[in-house]
Amino acid sequence: MKALIIEDNDEIAECMKMSLADMAITTDRFAEGRRLFDATRVSEYDLLILDLNLPDHDGLKLLKKLRDAGDQTPVLIVSARINLSDRVSGLDVGADDYLTKPFELAEFEARVRALLRRRQSARTPMLRFRGLAYDQNSREFSVGGTVLNLSPRERSVLEALIRQGGAVITKERIFEHVFNFDDEAGLPAIELYIHRLRKKLEHSDVTIRTKRGLGYALERKPDQKRK
């Protein structure tokens, strides 16, 4: 999963990033509101965390523009505006939740979990590709009922693949799903995670095929196709 934080306070933003990392959520963070649409054009997010008092834009106007464009990404407003009228305006414009500063990280994490559960409940809770299953609530992958032991980034790569349902996904798109803009990793890192995942799937009926010049896709293993 991946979240976008638009917050100009470095200390608050870093605390939120650390909390999300503990929840196995990759984050991109920007201090300027104008970067919101730059980011959403090149990456898909599961959650947007939005401050209202930004140095270059009013967060409410940004949120309205986002919703008017048809973007339905769950939005958690985190703001120092504590008046009831501000909270009502935020929810009316399209926010899914509103958290006032200062806040406890435990409450922030609980609200993030609630928003993600709400989004996942609107989806099919279990995704399957042949014998590979992905529980979107627990974020666990299993083969034949046995849970796979995956690192957070291995899980994110496999999540990007299974959501395609066997269709090809580019290496660049996987990279955007797994890493944030500040990471120094390059595209070759995806090849490493694909290699590790192939080994962890070797006892299943699923493998990851490289589509030259296109990307990667989940496929049945060749011996499974002949049965």
Short description:
The chain is built from nine helices and eleven strands. It has helices spanning 10-22, 35-42, 59-68, 84-93, 105-121, 152-162, 171-178, 188-200, 222-225; strands at 2-6, 26-30, 47-50, 75-79, 97-100, 126-129, 132-135, 140-143, 146-147, 206-211, 215-220. The chain starts with a strand and ends with a helix.
Write the layout of secondary structure elements.
Blueprint: E1 2-6, H1 10-22, E2 26-30, H2 35-42, E3 47-50, H3 59-68, E4 75-79, H4 84-93, E5 97-100, H5 105-121, E6 126-129, E7 132-135, E8 140-143, E9 146-147, H6 152-162, H7 171-178, H8 188-200, E10 206-211, E11 215-220, H9 222-225
Parallel strand pairs: 1-2, 1-3, 3-4, 4-5
Antiparallel strand pairs: 6-7, 7-8, 8-9, 10-11
Task: Give your account of this protein's structure.
With 227 residues, the chain is α/β, with parallel strands linked by helices. Helices cover 41% and strands 22% of the residues. The chain is built from 9 helices and 11 strands. The strands form 3 sheets. Strands 2-1-3-4-5 form a 5-stranded parallel β-sheet, sandwiched between helices. It has a 4-stranded antiparallel β-sheet with strand order 6-7-8-9, with helices on one face. The chain has a two-stranded antiparallel ribbon with strand order 10-11. A hairpin with a 2-residue loop joins strand 8 and strand 9. The longest helix has 17 residues. It is elongated.
